[in-house]
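ok so heres the complex, three chains, lmk if somethin looks off
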Amino acid sequence: MTTADSVLVRPRALAVGGLGTLRRHPLILVLAVMVLVFQVSTGSFLDPANLRGIATDAATLAIVAVPLALLVISGYLDLSVGSTLALGGLVAGWLAGQGQSPVLAVLGGLAAGAAVGAVNGVLCCYFGLSAFIVTLGMLTAVRGLAQQLFPLPLSGFGPGFAWLGGSRIAGIAAPVVIAALVLVAGALFLALTPAGRHVFAIGVNREAAYLSGISIRRTPFALFVVTGVAAALAGSIKASVLDSAVGGTSGAGFELTVLTAVLLGGVALSGGSGSVLGVLLGVLFLGSLQNGLTLLDVPTFWQQMAQGTALVAGAALAHFAPRSAR
Amino acid sequence: MTEEGLRIRGLTKSFGGVRALDRVDLTVPMGQVHALLGHNGAGKSTLIKCLGGAFPPDSGTIEVGGRAYERLSPRESITAGVAIIFQTLSVVDALTVSENIFLGQEWTRYGWIDRRAQEEVAAGLLERVAATCSPRDRVGELPMGQRQLVEIAKALSRSASVLVLDEPTAALSTAESDALAERVEDLRTQGLAIVYVTHLLAEVERLADAVTVLRDGRVAHHAVGAGQRRRDLVAAIAGRPAETPDKTPDKAPVGDTDTTPRATTSPAAHVARGVGPSDGGLVLEGLRGPGFGPVSLTVGSGERVGLYGLIGSGRTRILETLYGRRRASGGTVRVGDRTVAAARPGDALAAGIALVPADRRRQGLFPTLSAHDNALLPAVRPLSRSGVRALGAERRVFDALAGAVGLRPARPRLPAGSFSGGNQQKLVLGRWINDTRGIRALLLDEPTQGVDVGAREEIYRVVRSLAEDRGTAVLFASSDPEEIVELADRCLVVAGGRVVGELSGAELTEEALLSAVHEASDVSVSADVSVSADVSTSADVSGISDPSDATPAHQQSVTAEGAV
Amino acid sequence: MTTSPFAGTAASRRQFLAWSGTALALGAAGCSAPGGSAASSGQKAAAAKGSAEPLTKVGLDYPFTQLPLYATLVKLSTAAAKKHGVSLLTTSDGSIPDTQATNLNTWVARKTPAIVSFPMVFEATEAIAKAALDAGLIWVTYGGTMEHQSADIRFSFREGGALLGEAAAKWALENLGGKGKIAFLTDSTIELGRERTKGMIDAFTKLAPGVDVVAQEQAIDPDTGLTKTKAILAKHPDLNLVLGVTDASAYGGFKALEQTGRAKDDAKTFVGGQDGAAPSLIAIKQGTFYRASAALAPQDIANAIVDVPLAVAAGKANPGVEVPIALVGRQDTVKIDALLAQNG
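and the predicted structre for the whole thing:
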């Protein structure tokens, strides 16, 4: 009785240690083994410079993965984030290139992301259209919009704008700091706010949530908007890091990478279950895998095979592990 | 000595240190009906699932058709001749009756499904269970009782020798239940060993050749032979001296005295208290909506009013419209002095109206979320301070409500799905009994559907005390006359979407209810749905007619309107 | 830095032009040999067009709509067409071969008089090209040569890659003493990419065998270029050269080097790419260690897109064109400005 209790009682979102966490997130083990293999075979995987690189790359992924995970937990989905990322980065970069203050430029990019999210949210939450179809359509439409507005690559955004992607806060790259804030905010939201509970309830049983008097539209709508903003933020960071943005290719395929990280992290596509810790693990898994294969100088097509196999293996391990309460 | 169809010896099963089954023995000879009773959570479901191969037992043996197994896979279980008809049926709505019966064992000719041969055999099987549907009917369009018969026919097609029925009448109307009871008797005659899981003692009295009562995973009571005494069974199920007195069908339950003092309420006392719109109760005036109305009724503060009607009578629609889940097309609703036009549940809740829906699985429960989350969902926001959850206050509210409803086990982190049906219902009900939401009118739809006897008593006690201690107006719908008599101060009979009669005080008996509703069904079927009010008032509620007279009419109304 | 690392550029460009002249002749000859009947039917169609009525419409089917070059080409060739009184139609294939085939079939069915197409899969497009020729339409193959065609617009992608490889090797010999470490950002997914990759690597390794090739990683966009180069840098912090199959990927490599603390004009670092994309051209012009791009002039391509169909319609002999690829370095400011103007 007591053992069963202690496993179940531990607050999920905030627990980072302990056997229960390991049981709920077998990806920790997979990640550890993978890191070990990469370190032994390359000798440079755990170098601080390399880890910094992984963290910076994983940062943009995490920034979008957290709100997307919340959206998926509430039973929805956003496939348009790749294009929203491009649009947000282009708008922000363009504004910066026009001589606007970097802060204003980024805010402009975020506003574009919020607009895309709001359209998604209205169509999916208020009109009740299928999120899969709506956001798939928006993936194409927003990409078209980005290319129509910015047919040519933008570059030369200025030193102020470079701060977002290039500066260090207490020795840590700004994108990593932002990602950490997003992760903590996501975890706190789920654990400590009423809306966080509502997200789970809506995802598990929409009808029952509705009958419990919960606003089943407002919270997912807000999550769509936040996801759009997060994608635009990630786009702005990428634009800042690269000091360039391309309408046609920025963030192409990003939506599937993020979704992969989210699902690997144990968030169920059917809604109602998932945790921010899991999402973090999913993001780190993908980032480490890509980095390690490059370090090993694996030929392209072998890399693709290895990536696919590792994904399936990771998912299988997570599946066969004991199921968590959420 | 009869040949033994099923023999279970020393079956033990634990989940994470909790012993769900503890050396359980159960023997059912061929041609016998064995009733399995007990609280939900007593181990019945675990026993069935071990039998069906869903769980491997820790120890013990299961003997079917003379062969002993230490554990069964689902396929082995079917091959051995075990068929389990669960509460939630496993038929596929989109397929026809014969397609369902032959699902996974299709008859083929040249690689194509031999539809005609299947339908011929299906027709024979349907005849054997006396189902009235055709092999070509789509299962989704059939009434619940017929679907169940289809599932039984499917079991027979696999030459089952042991049939397990898990609360088969929970979703059935009275007439359907009677029909099912006849089928069970037929099947017994045909030599099947039948395990009949139920909460209804009347069914035990009618059908069982032997009874086993489980409590806390152990066999608490075992008796062979018909004529079980209710008092003994209730005592065995509850594990304490019976709280409810032995009731025999011919005895009017008006004088029903409860040994729990707080639960003792004479209906007359409530009427005497004075019921009016000004005392904070619930008032409906000419409420209309698709498929029902106009309905006018009053539930006084502290009063418990039952809506009695068959499936499809519109009782669920009335409650759901009151709660804002369905849009009313006319009429007014008042709670106290306030007029409520609920466009969605949130509006109704803001006005102090709450609903406990009938379909717990679809409309009430969040099975993967914790008990805490389930019970406190609507309270989390009101309790929170500046947008942050007040975890301490939440815990105190949970503990208080878990104590009030008698939640077992009172473990806040346990997923709601792993609670028994009765305790799940307590969680759903618990949402509305804390102080964070000022609930002035509580609506309950089939408050104890799929709930065991013990939990049923507790739920009644909670509802009574809500009405008495807090003055909550309680309006509940039920198709179980026993429940109406047990819980209601006053009962309104619903048929064809309108109130066709009222019973209270000494008139409120199971017999009166049954006859009222069957006569009303006759009226509602013969007349159009839009009959004027005089038809409903003309319904005579005092005469007692033979319920079987009403069966065809009732069936017709069910098929016409479907489940609400 | 007074001695330009591109001392050989002019020479090699001359050499290239001369070589491509030969290639043109060879191409024309090679074209007529296997597909004689097709060529003749093409010529016949062209002759018919030429005699009957002037060409009023040209359809440009460029599948890679996500590339910046697409927008530039559409803009420049629309303008070029206008000068000849021709209107330009475009497709939106979104880099999907199936969509491309559908769009081309539509054009053939609607009898768009001249089609300039960059087939994503050459073999799969032969049937459509044949149908176009049979319908009396002009078919111009872009980026290669097909069996069924009226004429073609060719690029020597391998030569472009070789130009870049040679320039980088020369720089390594002069500035690193023929030692050091190089990483290639490659593409093996489409024919164009494979040719560029092979030209670049072969030319470099032949001329500068002493430089260590530490990585060959698939990357065509800046994001991937950045990620991969960062990973490579973690293992080889002393990496000297990054050559990209596209300017976009090389630009990612450029940013990765910069972000790991390389000074913008570090004398021991060389980044080069292919295409002549605006961000790279700007970086080259600013005197950074992004030192070279094997650039296509969009205006040249746009002119060819209009001129080749017109030449076919007018019945000219050898109407096909090979668009030159030129290496652009720091000192080519005029050329850079011209390219930037075309892009903008």
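quick notes: The interface with chain C takes residues 42, 44-45, 47, 49-50, 53, 56-57, 143, 147, 151-153, 155-156, 166, 238, 241-244, 246-252, 290-291, 294-295, 297, 299-301, 303 of chain A (CB under 8 Å). thats all i got rn
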